[in-house]
Amino acid sequence: MQVFRIDTLPGVYQAVTFRDLSSWQSRLTNYNAEPLRSVWPDPKTGYVVDPSLPDATFRAFSAGCFVIRENLLADEALATVFEIAAELLPVTVDGERCLIVNVLAFFNALFPQATEWEVSPGSGQPGTVRRGCFKAARLGRAPLFKIPQNPSDAIYCASGEEQMYDFYEAVQNGGYTGLSFVEQLVVG
After folding, report:
1. Domain enclosing residue 175, as ranges
2. Can you say how many angstroms the Cα of residue 75 is from the centroid of all Cα atoms in its chain?
3. What is the pLDDT of residues 67-89, one digit of tens each?
4. Residue 73: exposed, middle, or buried by beta-carbon count in 10 A (0-12, 13-18, 19+)?
């Protein structure tokens, strides 16, 4: 089994933001594995930040989530992954219907003693996870997930023959762009 941290690539590919972001961002853009659909405003003022950059299948928006076009759900493997592990929040970007992928699966699977941490400059204490070490036995079956140590900052995926639905494999096989996969450590 492999585990990857999934990073979007703003500055390399197009990213998305919204003209009326201040009216809803503070209460609705903390993508920390909690459902938002019941309070979602369905913003229609999205736009690409730098249209001169290459377009991507997965676009950056905010830490802990990414934006896809609605037609990506035609890929059955990805549609199943999103159905199992996330909620899809509707947005409109430059007049096109898109979706924010808000991952809801949450596993307390990090092995803190073997994890590499970013050290907080002021306190010298461990801050965010640089490279996680995951306990395989504590990982659930969801193909995408978050962890309690940084739920609003990072999305992870498990890959390998143990995974019935494999996000990493679906992205690689589909030739999709806009994400990088940073391998993490896994222990039994």
Report:
1. 112-187
2. 18
3. 999 999 999 999 999 999 999 99
4. middle
- In angstroms, the CA 32 to CA 83 distance is 17
β-strands 133-135, 185-187 pairing:
parallel
**At residue 12, what is the residue type?**
V
> 19 with 99, same domain?
yes
Count of domains for the chain: 2
Q: Check residue 110 and report its DSSP letter.
A: B
Q: Where are the alpha helices (DSSP H) in the chain?
A: 21-28, 76-85, 167-174
| Six-digit token string for 113 | 């003693």
pTM beyond 0.85, yes or no: yes
Cα angle: 45, vertex 98, 71; to 5 degrees: 150
Same domain, 16 and 92: yes
Rounded distance between C-alpha atoms, residue 135 and residue 186, angstroms: 6
Q: Which amino acid is at 186?
A: V
